[in-house]
Amino acid sequence: MTPFSIEPIDFDRAAVGVWAELSPRHRNWPVVYVIDGPGSGAGAVYVGETINAAARMKQHLDGPKRGMGLRDVRVIIDDEFNKSACLDLESHLIRWFAGDGIRSVLNGNEGITDAQYYNRDRYRSSFRAVFDELHARGLFTRSIAQIENSDLFKLSPFKALTETQAVAVEQILEALLADLEQPSSTTQSVVEGQPGTGKTVVAIYLMKLIADIAESTDTDTDPDGRFAEFFAEGYREMLAGIRMGLVIPQQSLRESVRRVFKKTPKLRAQMVLSPWEVADAGEPFDLLIVDEAHRLSQRASQGSGPMNTRFATVNERLFGADDVRYTQLDWITSRSRHQVLLMDAEQTVRPADLPYETVATILREAGRAHRRFRLLTQMRVKVEADYVGYIRRLLRGDAVPVPDLGEYDLRFFDDVGAMRREIRRMDAAHGLARMVAGYAWKWRSKKDKTAFDIELDGERMRWNSVPTDWISAPGAIDEVGSIHTVQGYDLNYAGVIIGPDLRRDPATGRIFIDRASYMDRKGKENNGYTKKTYTDDELLVYIRNIYGVLLTRGIRGTFVYVSDPGLREWMRTRLADRPSDVASHAG
């Protein structure tokens, strides 16, 4: 690539007019530009691309951006830029600015692309140099690695969608707009996908896209965007004032997404809701998007006595009686006209979650109504083979062929200390490497901060010290996270301890649970409201699902330690003796 230049301009008409005459390329050449203000460390930023920078600046000066406090323009020019490269650089910069979190990104997300084009890798190799120069000029505060490891980046609405994600968003939006034309209609759509297919990405993207359409103007619309047809007169008016929310059952993930929404123009932290907040809202919603909908609760014992009373009170207020049939999903459907549910039946991890029968019925009815959308592309785990499917079959005890995982770093450890040291090393090199485990040890350190919870192979470890945003918390590298702190999150490397709650009988080959070793009280208690008792075989499904989630967190690699000797030897042959494997580690 030839050297690029970054040309500064004041964001005013006179300065742009003078700059326009300095070179023909200022009026006729593909470029990327950044407009920001009121200065380093604060304010807002807008990123764009155009083939006529001077004319585009004048459009912005005549439009709403003139009153947004923007002051400075940086135009990035390269002799070898073309339209595709500029679109790609624009998308990267938008995502990096959003992940840095120091400025509000004024862009919509409909123009974010991840398209293939000629010499894409060569162009992308130059993008880091552009970033570094902008960083040196004070527009970024963190490195690319720090940005891309942050929740602000991973949970950002500025994502390039896969084809199946884009199709789902497009079809959901088409159906919603058609439904809104019928004031009395009520609908429910389902987006189904395994871990890593980007269900949360779709939920957040859809919220931002709808907000952008509702507040759009003709000058803000990208005519080449995938969703350009929705930025039209009529649709804007239809979505203006729409009352919508994103419901997230898990507390930790909910708080992380709230921080993202707080930083994103047109979105608000108050849009991110718990099921309880939906039930208590003063006004009904037009649209509720529910992430991890399988984690909504049925009528079961809550975490405290007051919460049990509150559940009954909600049921009585909404339905006239505290009938055990009513779940938090019923709260959501009663409080909204339209719902989009994102779910995966194999990620239910507690008996209090929606019953399998309920989830199966939802999926079946959505299919009949042609409102069931499947996400098929694995985005998290960097491997072409069906890693998620392999892990799920492995946990069922199936004799499945071991796939070739290529460069994916899947390792089996005989010594938990060796695995812990390797996780520390990967965290130093790449960030976001964490130890996680099944809930097979009591949480003694919750009340006694000097106590240790997990003791294995001479290692003494504590469970996560904070319940929310543990992955990013100080000291997380020294702790062990549970299912309740990592579900919905990405890690670069996950060191997974499979505890004594999951075992294998070498004589029969049967994988089973040790109920006494499963320490999540709420994860195994019977349901006194529905009079449902849970057999060991039923709890086995939940515990398998827990390990299925833990073993699919790692983007670059997963390290595995198994407590039970029978299960350890069987898993060793499938994890340590696979194609292209690094040898089993004994420390």
Automatic annotation (TrEMBL):
InterPro entries: GIY-YIG_endonuc, P-loop_NTPase, SLFN_3-like_DNA/RNA_helicase. Gene3D superfamilies: P-loop containing nucleotide triphosphate hydrolases. It comes from the Bacteria. Residues 28-108 form the GIY-YIG domain. Signal peptide: none annotated. Transmembrane segments: none annotated. This is DUF2075 domain-containing protein. It comes from Microbacterium horticulturae.
